[in-house]
Write a structure and sequence with these properties.
It is a single chain. With 266 residues, this protein is an alpha/beta fold. The chain folds into two domains: 114 residues, 3-Layer(aba) Sandwich (D-Maltodextrin-Binding Protein, domain 2); 96 residues, D-Maltodextrin-Binding Protein, domain 2 (3-Layer(aba) Sandwich). It contains nine helices and ten strands. A five-stranded mixed β-sheet has the order 2-1-3-10-4. Helix 6 links the parallel strand 6 and strand 7. The protein is globular and about 75 Å long.
């Protein structure tokens, strides 16, 4: 016996058909994943470009959280749900690896940071720029928190200016804040990452001195996987591609040997 389709029975069927159509049309976005990437402040602009490239070929959404490596480290130790860490040093990723807070064996040296002395409004900058007593303040990142600040301290010690310039040094929480001190005019010059200038609107607004590498310890920037998120693994693999490595070099970094990886405990 067949039951006639009444108004009452037709209405739910229409709703079911509509629901099926909605699900079918939106199935691709439903499969997209989100990846949270904690990024050292010096690598912010470069990471923006990497994410833009990646999202052209993937439905996954990459969310970048910028800040000092030291602060990211503390947040991760306290349970922050990040999937990846792109740090400005080796120490903090290694410590997380030793504490069992990473995907074992995933850490690698993705870039070597380069330090410069930036002097806005000038046509040249060199070793004598920091010996000029006419400037009021020089900006650096906090050496206790930021690898670029530690490198800046090493340079000033090498030049025998660290003690003499103490009253004139202003410290940012990270190299991004040190950069802003200079942009705002609160400091007349400062030690920043080369990557903050290359390709930016500020590159032609002054001069910078590329600090010789023997003035400071290499700034080895390490990335490490923090979760077993498949989308995060895919993004990390993309970051190791030749395309991205070329982008990193063009942004003011050097690419280290592929053998530079974190040491894992047995």
């Amino acid at each position: 016996m067949r039951w006639p389709l009444t108004t009452e029975t037709r209405l739910p069927m229409r709703l079911i058909i509509l629901l099926i159509c909605v699900i079918a049309s939106s199935s691709e976005p439903l499969l997209a994943a989100q990846v949270k990437v904690a990024t050292a402040s010096n690598f912010k602009l470069t990471m923006n470009r990497i994410i833009e490239l990646y999202e052209q070929q993937s439905a996954d959404r990459i969310v970048q959280i910028n800040g000092s490596t030291g602060k990211h480290y503390a947040q991760i130790k306290n349970g922050a749900p990040y999937d990846l860490l792109f740090a400005a040093n080796r120490f903090h990723p290694q410590s997380l690896e030793d504490s069992g807070l990473t995907i074992r064996g995933s850490g690698y040296n993705y870039a070597l940071g380069k330090l410069v002395l930036w002097v806005p409004g000038e046509t040249s900058a060199n070793v004598n720029s920091v010996r000029d007593a006419e400037f009021e303040y020089v900006a650096i990142a906090n050496p206790k928190l930021a690898p670029y600040g530690r490198a800046a301290q090493q340079v000033l010690q090498q030049l025998e200016q660290w003690t003499a310039l103490q009253p004139q040094i202003v410290r940012g929480e990270n190299v991004a804040q040190a950069f802003q001190f200079i942009v705002s005019g609160n400091a007349q010059m400062g030690f920043v990452a080369k990557s903050q200038l290359i390709g930016s609107e500020y590159q032609e607004q002054g001069a910078y001195w590329p600090i010789p590498q023997d003035y400071y310890a290499p700034i080895e920037q390490y990335a490490v996987l923090l979760s077993d998120n498949e989308a995060a693994q895919s993004f990390l693999q993309f970051c190791k591609s030749k395309q991205v490595q070329q982008l990193i070099v063009s942004s003011g970094y050097e690419i280290p040997p592929t053998s530079n990886r974190l040491h894992t405990k047995p």
